[in-house]
Each structure stands twice: as C-alpha cells, then as structure tokens.
Amino acid sequence: MKCKFFWLGLMLGTGLVFWGSGCASVEQTGRSRLMLYSESAERQAGDTAWQEVKQQEKRSTNTAARSALTRVGRALVAVSGKNSGNWEFEVFSSDVPNAFALPGGHVAVYEALFQYTDSDAELATVVGHEIGHVLARHGGERMTQAALQEWVGALLGAATDSGELGMVAYGVVTDLGVILPFSRKHEYEADYIGLLLMADAGYDPAAAIAFWKKFSQLSGSSRLESYFSTHPLGEDRIEALEQHLPEARTRYQAAPVKRGTGSRLSGVVRNSVR
What we know:
The chain has helices at 2-22, 39-56, 63-77, 120-135, 138-159, 163-200, 206-215, 223-227, 234-254, and strands at residues 23-25, 32-34, 88-92, 99-102, 106-110. The strands form two sheets. Strands 3-5-4 form a three-stranded mixed β-sheet. Strands 1-2 form a two-stranded antiparallel sheet. Helix 4 packs across helix 6. It is built from nine helices and five strands, in the order αββααβββαααααα. The longest helix is centred in the middle third of the chain and has 38 residues, at 163-200.
C-alpha cells in the first residue's frame, strides 16, 4: 500500500512540475494547454513525417489543382504572420476527399477534394483550417498528450496489480476521455483560425459555411459515430462557424485586398462522385 501511495505521489508531483514548466497558450485564441515539446522539436518531427508521406503518396500531375493550392496557400500564409518561405503545399493523387497538415508548415490536399470545392474561397476554407492546426501547434500538443499518456500508463502499471487487462482499460478511457475530445477541440479551433485567415486574405468567409454544408453531406454520421471521431459532426461545425461569422465579416471588410470567392474551380478535377 505504501508503495502505491509513493507512485501516486510521484505522478502528481511530477505532473505539477510539468504543468508549471510547460504551460502555454494558443496565440490566436488564448486557450491554455500543456506543451512539453519545443517548436523546433515539433518542426523536426513534422519534417521527418513529411518526407515519409512524400515517399508513400503519389504526387498529382493536375497542374490546375496544384496551381490553385499554391495560389490560395500563399495568400493565406501572407496574412498568417509566419515566414512564408517555410511553407510547402502539395496535391496528392487520391480518390479520398481529404487534407492534412504537419508541423513545420506542410499542407497536403488530395485530388478528390477538388470535386467539392467550387472556388478559391472554398479551397481557402480547407487550407486555412489546415494552416490553423500548424499555427496553433496542435501537433506539439498531441505529441505532449501521447507522451503523458504513455508516461502515466507506465507508472500505473508499476503502481498497481491490474495487469494487462487493466492497462487496456486505461488506454480506452484516456483515448475517449482525453485524446479524442482534445482532437475535436483542435478541429473547432482550426476552423476558427482558418475562418479569420481567409477573411484577412480577402476571401469571403461565407464560403466556409457553404463548403461545410456541402461537404458534411458526405458523412451521414450519427451522433454516436461522431463521439468516436476526431472531427465534429457537420451541423455542429457549421453552427460554431456561424457564431464566428460576424467577426470574420468585419475582418473581411477591413482586408486591403478583396478576392471574394476567387477563381472558379469547378471541373479542375474530373468529378465522378457527384
């Protein structure tokens, strides 16, 4: 029993040290979070992962899609406050409509997503969201969460006699109770940052609502399925964006360059889904 109390005390004490030394806030929203990794370490991890991705994924040869992503990406980065020379945008050939970002400024869009983006402004909705993840350092935050989950799990394994079954239960609880909710929080936060970025870049923020209403029809997820997903349900995401729309419209009106919806993208990628 004394041994168990010793381990629990060690966990709490070390946790408080981590919290005091690694507490940081998201610059764009002010949200406090624990961050145990430096920005350079996070960037290095992202750079390494990006090289692996480029070896595994097929680079798109669609020049129109690649030009659109570069055009929109550069416009958003120009108002992000981050060095535009450190960003890389890539279109991969895939029939899965998706996009992702890695720490260090690596943003990828799959070809199939262009089947659902009718304009530069709708593409800016997606790309702004991904840039938002990078700016908010969600990668480093997830790295921190994973490290703490492994650390606490190891300590619990030493402090209890729960065995393998107990450790599996611990993993399930932390995934559903901590990791996934934080992921959904990251998604909402990236949506907000992306919405303001596209407005600052002169893209009509109303296009974000139009895009997500259209794209959410792909999912058809029930609320139960959404609970086990890292992404918010379509209607919830749209409701959150609509709450931020007045702020985005104000920034759009103040933008020195008005791009509106930008160039039309219909037909950039042959559409066999709609």
